[in-house]
């Protein structure tokens, strides 16, 4: 046995050990750690500076530990982490989001997602759990018209079932009833088992399914309306 | 390994197995290694802005995991110790039970190496750092890295070579 064979044998062991922890679980653990760290910093500050000073800071509005948990603002969307553990995604009607940037930002918040532009990926059958993981109470989503307020979607990453991820597809519509509008669709897909289509899902019919979400926004309004 | 502009999820996917193995051959217990590596990656995520600029983020994770192991022992008011050489084979067999395709002889041989040689082998062969980067991470000279690597590989070769081949060579 020579040195090269030893090196090869050692390197081959890398393929035999597999970490089984999903990245979402790591991020969730990291987020909890960051929260604890912020809490400790806050406690230290309060103890060191004194209650009166801390109250003064709160009153003056310069002391907002919750804000440090993070809000990502881009030209196309805002992603905000809520105190109850959910995250809220607000789409800017004026600008279509960059799919890789949004996917990366969602991952930073522990939300597994496949974000595409000009296409939309779905699994058949759709995995269950979408309505528990995603809520969109505001106007401008679902069957709403394009001139309504920005779509706001609340995502609970803890409710996304293992082995699935959120599919987000965006389209800039150039023809048809909603030409000039933007369209975004969301559903759950099985990780590694889905198909993608460059045809936007039909938004002209009211959608009664609770397994996905369709949004029209940022356009001039349906032609002829 | 890429560092700047590295996406955490990509980094995790690319390096988690090598980091786990690197920690495993130092602590000798699969569950402990997994927990330490998970915690180290979580810390990396929480400080990703600075960790992603580290010359070798995977080495940062391994070092953080092993430091956490040391802290864990200190908290329990016990001595920090490496696995007892007499029980290394037993530990390697336990590891094999959890990861059926791993070669327990190699794990045992790595665990028997002196700490510095094992660190160099880990960084150079498992995490694929070059000599200069390894030297930078360990705070030693590149020539020291080369020397530890050569000694470590020689020790592994002696340990892994069947006895009859050693007799023939000698």
Quick take:
By secondary structure, chain A is of the alpha+beta class. Chain A contains five helices and eleven strands; from the N terminus they run H-H-H-E-E-E-H-E-E-H-E-E-E-E-E-E.
Describe the structure.
The complex is a heterodimer of chains A (225) and B (170). Chain A has 225 residues and is an alpha+beta fold. Chain A folds into two domains: 22-68, no CATH class; 70-225, no CATH class. Chain A has helices at residues 3-12, 23-49, 51-60, 99-108, 130-133; strands at residues 71-73, 77-81, 87-91, 113-117, 120-122, 134-135, 152-155, 164-172, 182-190, 195-197, 212-217. In chain A, strand 1 and strand 2 (77-81) form a beta hairpin. Chain A starts with a helix and ends in an 8-residue tail after the last strand. The model of chain A is unreliable at 57-68, 139-146 and 221-225 (pLDDT under 50). Chain B has 170 residues and is mostly helical. Chain B has a domain at 1-81. Chain B contains ten helices and no strands. Chain B has helices at residues 8-27, 30-46, 48-51, 57-75, 88-98, 104-112, 115-126, 131-138, 142-160, 163-169. In chain B, helix 6 packs across helix 9 (142-160) and helix 8 crosses helix 9. Chain B starts with 7 loop residues before the first helix and ends with a helix. Classes of the chains: A alpha+beta (225), B mainly alpha (170). Chain A binds chain B through residues 1-3, 6-7, 9-21, 23, 25-27, 29-34, 37, 104, 107-108, and chain B through 7-9, 12-13, 16-21, 24, 34, 37-39, 41-46, 99, 101-103, 106-107, 110, 121, 125-126, 153-154, 156-157, 160-161, 165.
